[in-house]
Amino acid sequence: MTSDTTFSSTIKTLVWFRQDLRLHDNPALIDAANNGAILPVYILDDINAEQWRMGAASRSWLHHSLTALNDKLQGNLLVLSGDASTIIPELCHDHACTSVVWNRCYEPWRIKRDTNIKASLKSHNIAVKSFNGSLLWEPTQVLKSDGTPYKVFTPYYRKGCLRQLEPRAPEPSPTALQFIKVDKKYHSCVAHQGINDLNLLSSLGWDKGFYPLWQPGEDGAEKQLLKFKQQSAFYYKDRRDFPSITGTSHLSPHLHFGEISINRIWHGIFEAAQEQGINPFDDSNLDCYLSELGWREFSYYLLYHFPYIPEQNHQPKFNAFPWQRDQQSLERWQQGLTGYPIIDAGMRELWQTGYMHNRVRMIVGSFLVKNLLIDWREGEQWFWDCLLDADLASNAASWQWVAGSGADASPYFRIFNPVTQGKKFDPEGEYVKRFVPELSRLPKKYIHSPWEASSSELKLYGITLGQSYPSPIVDLSTSRKRALEALEICQNK
Ligand SMILES: Cc1cc2nc3c(=O)[nH]c(=O)nc-3n(C[C@H](O)[C@H](O)[C@H](O)COP(=O)(O)OP(=O)(O)OC[C@H]3O[C@@H](n4cnc5c(N)ncnc54)[C@H](O)[C@@H]3O)c2cc1C
Could you confirm whether domain 316-491 is CATH 2.60.120.620? Predict the structure, then answer.
């Protein structure tokens, strides 16, 4: 890539990076680069997101992701913080940009903001183009025959999406980029900041444990995709539910920040299938993986058509649900101190690595909402702060799925039993022992239910319940009964 290519055209374009922190298959960047010189900009502007300002784990990832993007842009990324609706017009003015491009975001606050910015720029004779850089199918493209949105996943995906045109093939990174020189003298709106000035990293160093496991940025994302295709994709359906093994792609934070395009992953799976001479829809493992990408699409689709889902029950009858206010139990859940090993392992995995396995997310979610009767929005908020892949669409849709209040939700009466789930999906207790080391000496017959061991046996393994490891904070069968009774209240509404 060069920075001194000359273009016949004199178009100067501001490229506004948001959740598309990559060069490859970036439709907005490619369009701008084809037309002339670019001013690449990132603005930390989530002040308008109110309760959905980026959580601590996401901020940490963003720091590293911006650093990686800036390297790819040869140090030309302009990083600022403040209100994008004032910064962008001023940057255009200062740098004589006649055009602005971005890839679309779907969070309700962003849609509102982008619509206003588009109108304001157009009124100043600045051309604006937005592109689809993060979804396989635009939410407006997939509707039922009566013109209304789907509410159930399978018909949405199989009838709505897969019968649409095939998602477009990914495009390579631009081969040449010409950068507009940033002249600080004329840069009137805000002081030119560096990535460090955004103060995105945890001052307590909480996030240090994350990065031996993750490599933020598009090179890291590409490596992860390759590893997944080579090692796990062809076993995905069989292995994806076992948290002690690497059976899933671990692409979610890369996807959230747009370090890899969804089209790149979709077509990457097709290429892997082609190399084996098969159609991915005929292979149960690949078909299952593609449908998980479909769940991501569905989450964005729901957020677009029902923008209240991060805050309100999708099914209004859940508004009558008798949630309990129980700060102590909530904190025990957050800290991984519930006395149920698979729950505690999951919550500690989240805290230590910024990630939690999907099966375990479902188990800890069910436990919070059903056994503890704590409002799903408390869990959603905690995940929002702690997950590296925290994503408004997927987090909200998944929590509503767990709670039973969502569009196409797990029925409320399906209550995961953490002991049975643990025995089924972590049969050797390896996952539990990794994150709950105080139980590491327990034999597998007790690993998911330490209270079943006698006190002399526990002593032998160095455990005193209530001291070295908590006693269960709630009884499973009485709390199950209580949850079903609570459900009755809102079913009758
Ligand atoms: C309570 C709860 C909260 C969740 N919060 C989030 C969140 O904030 N951000 C997030 O990206 N995912 C969330 N998920 C979905 C899922 O757990 C993660 O996407 C997945 O664990 C990420 O790991 P992976 O990349 O290895 O997934 P893989 O199994 O390899 O799946 C591939 C990709 O498909 C998408 N995907 C997979 N499952 C789902 C799903 N159920 N819903 C939406 N997209 C999916 C993700 O983008 C993922 O990277 C949540 C699930 C639950 C039950």
Answer: no
